[in-house]
UniProtKB/TrEMBL annotation:
<feature type="transmembrane region" description="Helical">
    <location>
        <begin position="195"/>
        <end position="211"/>
    </location>
</feature>
<dbReference type="InterPro" id="IPR014472">
    <property type="entry name" value="CHOPT"/>
</dbReference>
<keyword id="KW-0812">Transmembrane</keyword>
<dbReference type="InterPro" id="IPR043130">
    <property type="entry name" value="CDP-OH_PTrfase_TM_dom"/>
</dbReference>
<protein>
    <submittedName>
        <fullName>Cholinephosphotransferase 1-like</fullName>
    </submittedName>
</protein>
<dbReference type="GO" id="GO:0006646">
    <property type="term" value="P:phosphatidylethanolamine biosynthetic process"/>
</dbReference>
<dbReference type="GO" id="GO:0004142">
    <property type="term" value="F:diacylglycerol cholinephosphotransferase activity"/>
</dbReference>
<keyword id="KW-0472">Membrane</keyword>
<dbReference type="Pfam" id="PF01066">
    <property type="entry name" value="CDP-OH_P_transf"/>
</dbReference>
<feature type="transmembrane region" description="Helical">
    <location>
        <begin position="100"/>
        <end position="121"/>
    </location>
</feature>
<dbReference type="GO" id="GO:0005789">
    <property type="term" value="C:endoplasmic reticulum membrane"/>
</dbReference>
<keyword id="KW-0808">Transferase</keyword>
<feature type="transmembrane region" description="Helical">
    <location>
        <begin position="165"/>
        <end position="183"/>
    </location>
</feature>
<keyword id="KW-1133">Transmembrane helix</keyword>
<feature type="transmembrane region" description="Helical">
    <location>
        <begin position="128"/>
        <end position="153"/>
    </location>
</feature>
<dbReference type="InterPro" id="IPR048254">
    <property type="entry name" value="CDP_ALCOHOL_P_TRANSF_CS"/>
</dbReference>
<feature type="transmembrane region" description="Helical">
    <location>
        <begin position="254"/>
        <end position="277"/>
    </location>
</feature>
Length: 293
């Protein structure tokens, strides 16, 4: 019930900060970066909350699957924005997703987490929901790809930066593929036993890729594939390789250090970008001039 109430409060906050910015006359591109940038991080925690409510940790790859779905759809939404120059909403988008999450949390608070293990047509209810999620993901992704391939506003249907509409898929794959390899190749259950830490590491890498895409749309600049945050998953992958040569580090300790590194890299990037925007536009972050009150 506590998670449900917090989720309801969280749903109203984005509307309040927008009204406050317009009331005080401080609306700027920095607000868009803060709004969508914070969403790229908070969606990981919200999705984890849903996974805990449905006890998906007991399902092999269940938690990691819905995190990948959440991150991918959010990235694709901004990928289409990077191509078309405007953020478009689908029939099943943020509001509908929030309502679905609220329903799931409400059912869990009323009937307990065991309600998702009830058998339906020979399958558990949570398995059917995962399959439904997969179908909705395929439909939503096809809608985004249709916009991406046909809605480019640049020369010859390119992005707002004049680059290929296909290139933004590279940072997304650079986030997903290494973590899928790490998760599937592990000989121990360390990533299943510490799925929250593993997901936070993956979420930090994906959030930075999404933020770079948002900044690319705002500044109409070209995306760069390499980022130093990838050292986190690279270290985990190399540890698997060194295992064959009897030179490896405890996976759990390395996972913790990799997660701390990726979170620190994301934090530093957000601080630097915020300072650059504030300096360029001559605005003060977290401060409203007295003349505008």
């Amino acid at each position: 019930m506590k998670d449900l109430l917090l989720r309801l409060c969280f749903s109203f906050c984005p509307f309040l900060d927008g009204k406050q910015a317009r009331r005080t006359g401080v609306a700027s591109p920095l607000g868009e970066l803060f709004d969508h940038g914070c969403d790229s991080i908070s969606q990981v925690f919200v999705t984890l909350n849903v996974a805990f409510a449905m006890r998906l940790g007991e399902v092999r790859c269940g938690t990691f699957f819905i995190i990948i779905v959440s991150v991918s759809l959010f990235y694709c939404a901004h990928w289409s924005t990077y191509c078309t120059g405007q953020l478009r909403f689908a029939r099943f988008d943020v509001t509908e997703a929030q309502m679905t999450i609220i329903v799931i949390l409400t059912v869990t608070s009323l009937f307990g987490a065991n309600v998702w293990t009830i058998g339906v047509f020979g399958y558990q209810l949570r398995h059917l929901l995962l399959f439904t999620t997969l179908l909705l993901t395929v439909y939503q992704s096809s809608c985004y790809l249709s916009v991406i391939f046909t809605g480019g506003v640049g020369r010859n249907g390119s992005t707002v930066a004049g680059t290929s509409v296909l290139f933004p898929v590279c940072p997304l794959l650079a986030c997903i593929i290494p973590f899928c390899m790490i998760y599937s190749k592990s000989r121990t259950a360390v990533f299943d036993d510490n799925i929250t830490i593993f997901v936070l590491c993956f979420g930090a890498v994906a959030a930075k890729a999404t933020n770079r895409l948002i900044v690319g749309h705002m500044s109409r600049s070209e995306l760069v594939l390499w980022d130093w945050i990838y050292l986190g998953p690279i270290a985990l992958m190399l540890n698997h390789l060194f295992r064959y040569y009897d030179f490896w580090i405890c996976e759990r300790k390395l996972l913790i250090w990799a997660t701390l590194y990726t979170l620190a890299s994301l934090f530093v990037y957000c601080c630097v970008i915020t300072r650059q925007i504030c300096y360029h536009m001559k605005i003060q972050c977290f401060k409203v001039p007295n003349k505008r009150l």
